[in-house]
Amino acid sequence: MKSISKRFGATIALDNVELNIERGEVHALVGENGSGKSTLMRILSGAIRADSGSITLNGQPYSPKNPMEARKLGIAMIYQELSLCPHLSTAENVLLGMEFQNFGIIDRKESRKRTQEALKLLGITDLDVDAPVSELPIATRQLVEIARAVALKSDVVVLDEPTSSLTQADVEKLFGVVNTLREKGTAVIYISHFLDEIKRICDHMTVLRDGVNVGAAKVSDVDTDTIVSMMVGRKIDTIYPRSVRTPTDVVVEITGLHGMTKPENANLKLRKGEVVGIAGLNGSGRTELVRCLFGLDAVKSGKIRVGKFEGFAKPATRWSEGVGMLSEDRKLEGLALTMTIADNLTLTKLPSIVSNAKQLEDAELWVKNLGVKCRTPLQPIGDLSGGNQQKVAIARLLYHDVDVLLLDEPTRGIDVGSKESIYQLIDQLALQGKAILMVSSYLPELLGTCDRIAVMHKGILGETRAVADTDAEQIIREAAGA
Amino acid sequence: MKNFLKSSGIYNLLGLVVAWMGIFAFFWWKAPPNFHSLDNFKTMARQDTIVAIATLGMTCIIICGGIDLSVGSVVAFVTVIIAALLQAHMSPWVSLLLGVGAGGAWGLFNGILITRLKVVPFIVTLGTYLLVRGAAKGLAHNRTIDSPASWLNDLTSQPTDHDAWRILPTGVWITIIGAIAVALMLKRTRFGRHIVAVGSNEQAARLCGVPVERVKLGVYCLAGLLVGLAGLMQYSRLTLGDPTAADGLELKVIAAVVIGGASLNGGQGSIFGSLLGAWIMTTISTGCSQMGLDNWVEQMVTGGIIVISVAIDRLRVRKD
Question: Most buried one in A65, A398, B140, B180, CB count within 10 A?
Fold first, then answer.
């Protein structure tokens, strides 16, 4: 891939990016969230097209119109969220879209044979190819996807965070399969945040940061520290306002909290007038921690104290205790998109008899306070831009007048202007004595807005450190478990 | 008022009124002259009551993201209960309350199965659709149950000279008052807003501390009571208990709600829209029968109206 560039509106996602991969090579693609890795892979797999630049595949120019064409030309993508049909059998999944038919009837014997062949190439012989995929453990399902790539005779296999949900033993099995692919002469692109895995399995690496190449090297020539400093290497912008804050009493105290799977034994104290950040990779259990605290996920054991209230509670109780939560997923959980701005804003605190005039008055006040751009608070919230929707979702917590704000990815998927106003708002709220717990995948914003930061890695929450005592490199290293 | 006009709901209602006027104009032109008489209007209102009252409950259920296929069976069950109680020399008031209460109980039963077993409403109410119909037949020993005449029979009858002050049958008044009450409940009470929130985005509602399970239970219970009332009207029309009555009523009711602009994905719908939907269907069926057209014509026209109304709604949404 040569001088690939891609813009989304005003943001430059990729700027003249190069990526060269040879046959029989496992190539690591490394970078923080938002560095442009997924955009590059979406271009490779035909999901989107580059604005400029060119790709050659086996010496031929390659520009797929859609994912189907890319697949036919030999590019196989294997994503974090598996794309198998759980009700179909392994054989049916492996050959989906390229079934062997005789007069319109699937040749089951031939299908079974081809599937077993593909699996055998990966060193798997003990799999019942007629059993539904839903009966297989998650790690085996991933192997089925790779078998699909083999059956398609793909030249390039892209593995996107393949180990994030695997146990150590399954990781070993996967590495065995990756080695087999390498020996067969397949090019493997390996995307992972876990640097130790990259050290172990990859031959070459390309590092992206903010949409540009910042380094390419033979993996055996570099150490973890070099990789980390290549990934970070940027200064924190000045858009983060931070007033002098004086934290007072502890309002939330979590002791030895275990969720059903995550978190494990989490301890955390949150004071009035401070912002505490939780860093970590996706799936490390950050969101689960907040959800356990707010009563959305079940808790196995541990202690939670909110103000003078002890114990676990449902969301309704948490709201009444003065705790509010902002969901990481605005569309799925954060907002009711078909309802109006006013309805969304006031949903947590409705009187038995709702007065439209009062509701409108409240909504108008908060829409004005937070500068939400809308025609009227009575229009459906689905009409607004992401940034304005997010402002309403946050305004809900302010309207409820909570003392503790749990903000899960408060700036995900919104424009820079809205981000800045949300940072300012967080600072003001901390000054007013509110306690704020903020989860984010974007390190600069955590370093810029928080007073203290804790890192989560595979369900385990590290100790909280003052921002002055830590830096991006240390956090990345802890999040990656290196 | 200005804000009310700005909301998109009003265009939906206006569209339905225009559609109805078109259909009405067609029958005015084609049907016998007594079609547009005041008396015919009263007849239509009277025929509309059963579907209309059941529609009130179904609208709440569909807005909440659910569905209820057991409506027709519960109506039949209620007629059997009322007739059997009257036959056993119970007072009409007691029979009425127990009959409507039986409807509420079936609603509660649906609600409990849906919230406790976490089975989708379609499957649960498909089960109760058969279960309740069977229970009604068993209770009535597969026959109709005759019952002594009482004032319950007059609920859906036209006012006579000595009580002309009623203008419309009592049942129609009950429908109108019930509609206003349920519409106000949906718009102006916390419970009502919670119903819309659960249908619009259940997870967001849970995040905001809405007691999702209790809201669903409440909706099915309320709808059950309203179906009980519809059963009372059905009894009043038949003046006997009939376990085979109201066959397929649930589909008519769902059709009315859908024509009225509700989305089967939940979060969207209006009481007055659904009532207009029911009214449009009643107009078509009355018009067709007065023109002497066969039942198949009416069915095809109603089916066409459903498809067209949903298509228009989709187009409107896409335009936005």
Answer: B140
pLDDT digits (tens, 9 = 90+) for A191-222: 987 888 888 899 999 998 888 888 888 888 88
End-to-end CA distance of chain A: 30
Disruptive mutation site among B5, B64, B200 for chain A (greatest number of A CBs within 10 Å): B200
Instruction: Give per-residue burial for A347-377: e unless 16+ CB within 10 Å, then b.
Output: bbbbeeebeeeebbebbeebbeebebebebb
Residue type, B231: G
Residue A240 lies in a domain: no
Residue B294 one-letter amino acid = D
Instruction: Please list the alpha-helical segments (H only) found in A187-276.
Output: 195-201, 224-232
Collapsed DSSP state (helix, strand, coil) of residue A237 = coil
Asked if the C-beta of A389 comes within 8 angstroms of chain B's C-beta atoms, the answer is: no
Tokens of A293: 């605290």
Nearest C-alpha of chain B: how many angstroms from A427? 24
Say whether both A116 and A216 belong to one domain: yes
| 3-state SS assignment for residue A339 | coil
Q: ipTM score of the complex?
A: 0.80
The string of DSSP codes covering A181-195 is HHHTT-EEEEE-S-H
Q: Judge whether B80 lies within some domain.
A: yes
- The count of structural domains within chain B is 1
Cβ–Cβ gap A336/B207 under 8 Å = no
Joined together, the tokens standing for residue B173 give: 């008044």
**What percent of chain A clears pLDDT 70, i.e. is strictly above it?**
96
Spans of chain B, pLDDT less than 70: 1-8, 316-320
Distance from the A326 Cα atom to the nearest Cα atom in chain B, whole angstroms: 9
- Among the candidates A182, A198, A232, a domain finishes at A232
* pTM for this predicted structure: 0.81
Residue B257's SS3 state is helix
pLDDT single digits (tens) A96-153: 877 777 777 878 888 888 899 888 888 888 888 888 888 888 788 888 888 888 888 8
Taking the CA atoms of chain A, what radius of gyration do you get in angstroms?
A: 25
Pairwise CB contact (< 8 Å): B188 & A355: yes
Q: What is the pLDDT of residues A64-107, one digit of tens each?
A: 888 888 888 888 888 766 678 888 888 888 888 777 777 778 78
Domain of A362 in residue numbering reads as: 250-479
CA closest to B189 among chain A residues: A353
- Cα separation, B234 vs B171, in Å, equals 10
Q: Where are the alpha helices (DSSP H) in B117-156?
A: 121-139
B190–A354 C-beta distance less than 8 A: yes
What domain range is B192 assigned to?
43-246
Residue A294's pLDDT is what? 95
Task: Write down the pLDDT at residue A237.
Answer: 52
Residue type, A7: R
> Residue A258 has which token pair?
């275990």
